[in-house]
Prior knowledge:
The complex is a heterodimer of chains A (349) and B (467). Chain A has 349 residues and is an alpha/beta fold. Chain A has helices at residues 5-14, 19-26, 31-39, 51-80, 92-95, 101-120, 178-202, 233-257, 284-288, 300-306, 311-319, 327-348; strands spanning 89-91, 127-129, 133-136, 144-147, 151-155, 160-170, 211-217, 228-231. In chain A, 50% of the residues lie in helices and 12% in strands. In chain A, the strands form two sheets. Chain A has a six-stranded mixed β-sheet. In chain A, strands 3-4 form a two-stranded antiparallel ribbon. Chain B folds into two domains: 1-290, no CATH class; 292-441, Elongation Factor Tu (Ef-tu), domain 3 (Beta Barrel), CATH 2.40.30.10. Chain A binds chain B through residues 42-46, 50-53, 56-57, 168-170, 172-173, 177, 219-220, 275-276, 278-279, 295, 297-302, 304-306, 311, 314-315, 318, 332, 335-336, 339-340, 343, 346, and chain B through 3-12, 14-16, 20-21, 43-47, 109, 112-113, 116-117, 121, 164-169, 196, 198, 204-208, 212-213, 216, 290, 292.
Amino acid sequence: xxxxxxxxxxxxxxxPDCEILGAMVLQEGxxxxxxxxxxxxxxxxxxxxxxSSKRRGAQFERNAYAGDGRxxxxxxxxxxxxxxxxxxxRNLIDDYxxxxxxxxxxxxxxxxxxxxxxxxxxAVPDIIIQPQLLLPTRPGPKPYFFIAPDLLVWSPLAGTxxxxxxxxxxxxxNEVAASDLARVRLQLGAQLLALRxxxxxxxxxxxxxxxxxxxxxxxxxxxxxxxxxxxxxxxxEAVRIGIxxxxxxxxxxxxxxxxxxxxxxxxDLEPHFEDAxxxxxxxxxxxxxxxxxxxxxxxxxxxNVLGDMTMQRLLDLMSGSAxxxxxxxxxxxxxxxxxADQHDEEQxx
Amino acid sequence: xxxxxxxxxxxxxxxxxxxxxxxxxxxLSPDPDVTIGIATIKIVxxxxxxxxxxxxxxxxxxxxxxxxxxxxxxSDLLPFARFLNATVxxxxxxxxxxxxxxxxxxxxxxxxxLGHRYWRNQTASAEIVRMGELCxxxxxxxxxxxxxxxxxxTAQLQGHxxxxxxxxxxxxxxxxxxxxxxxxxxxxxxxxxxxxxxASGILPNTPDHPHDDRVDRLRKEAKSASxxxxxxxxxxxxxxxxxxxQHEWDLMVAxxxxxxxxxxxSAGLDGLVKDSTKRVAYAxxxxxxxxxxxxxxxxxxxxMEAGQEKADHAALExxxxxxxxxxxxxxxxxxxVSAVRQPRPKFYPCDIDVDSSQSVVRLRLDDxxxxxxxxxxxxxxxxxxxxxxxxxxxxEITGGVRTQSVLSVGAGVELVRSAFAFVNLRALGVVRxxxxxxxxxxxxxTIAARPSTGQSALAIATAARRP
Lengths: 349, 467
């Protein structure tokens, strides 16, 4: 998974206590390269998005944007209470294609212009494709995050634009997998914060409601399903926490590195290993070594239940070679011995 | 199992270097005569099946490899469609239950997507459409707790054993199996090595096994190739997919074997088997109709809730280990009959008191309960504290009044709340007829205020309670 743009903020929101993640966000280059420089050996696991996923995602977007966003207009028309042919679309990729910073800055200028026009009551497109926003984190290195929603959709109800994202996940009976939804909600949260920042620059009295729109795929082909409007109040708060964590981690990394590259100070940073890291972070195996001898190696729940206890201590309590130091340990020892006896009996039987 | 018990089991499993059973009974009935297995390899995100292995579990599977899984032509799936149709037909003709083993829930998801794609596809052949419908029936039944149609090998092992890994790692079937293999000296190390390659119905794509990218590239090349060269490319795709779908199949078979070798009795599941068989038989015969109207959705949720209640009850009834855990949480009450008030032996009315040393119990007034291991049922009519700080539960006996062995002072009993497994279809029918606003509307109707009776809500509720 990437550590750039809104994905970085999504990951920080998911594990705000991880200083290693903070260093990864600050480091130039890929996450895999970060691992290789820290650990000193090649990364031997799967990394990055698969070709098939990239292809499907790109095709889904191409289909949606084709013909002046015909499929998009058809999908949003019932929600906006307008005729699809009456909806106007502007695709900023037509103006400035590419993902280089120059193109992003150019798209940001256009996006800001459209937002200003909308506040002034001038004619604006109903749907903006590939707008560009940013979230400032200045002063300091990495003084901003480029945030690029797939869409901004004019909401007559809110009187503002709302962010929207296209995902080629398949909708079945109006539902998508909960695990798919959790991440994209956080993405919308980061996009909405960036949008609020832009509106705030124009007029501080404008209120952008905590909503975002998601457009998933129908099971057949690559046509958009009816959009979902998501309440993203919780996601916005989580991303705020993620940004605050980034500012903290950046301060610490900067204090330690004295001009050197962020990866050089990793040994002095505090990881915060969680079960979820195993499926989302290249550094998971490395961070896990810090809890290898502790009960937290058996998962988040074990860490919460037994705290910072070592595996050896647990085994000593079970065998009776260590005396419990408090009531909690006494209960653990008693229960473990009872369990052991019970399983020994079952096996003997 | 609560978090504390789960953690201690994990610690013990790690110390013993083997998987430990956490149940003494099975949640799955024995495999019926009509039992099949299905394993798939899909394209990530596309959710298109690119290889499928299927068949009965006592022989090598039939394998279909799809060279162009994204194409509109699905005639390559016909052998699978015919097999599925024939299996279902066998079950319908024999009026017998059916079982589908899968390696994990990703396969179920792949079948569900397959179902969504073809069950109403007007351009597909009738056999493919029927396959789509059957896939939807299978996937829908799997959502109902206590169902007995789908056996997910990973979920079965997760539900009945604990290993020394983190729970998230137990989603990997190959990793769990390391804890069952006596030849594996260090299952923790071995399991974590195995996790490097996926066991989730997709091709691996690691630096040393870049099969997904390779198949993707081969397909691209094959599209523009012809003749013998194209055949060579297709043979390479075939070999990779065949190998990995066979791997998925083998994991499923090994998972099933590990589960069966636990030797857990499957008592008390007759009701669940009956319910599941009835639901599936109806859908197979009459077709699949997803719930989309509010009243249908409410009925479906009720069916799920009833399934959960029945499954939980069956597990508690037949599994002393689960009962012991439930006792610590107060959900099961163990005690001794301290009083029996029955004017005529073996006849109603009959009330009993059960004294338990448990100070925390989850039973509440009017709860329906049963006495474990008997046909005696009752309703909780009183809850008091005993002089020793335990709990006295007073019951009105409503069933099994002739079972004198437990309806006697001094008899040891375990009380468990009965499953509330009632789907009120009649009420939901009325809802549909009247288009009740609470189901179909957005706003509540305005109700004119009436003068207060002066009674508190609590007093009204108390008056309504049966004396």
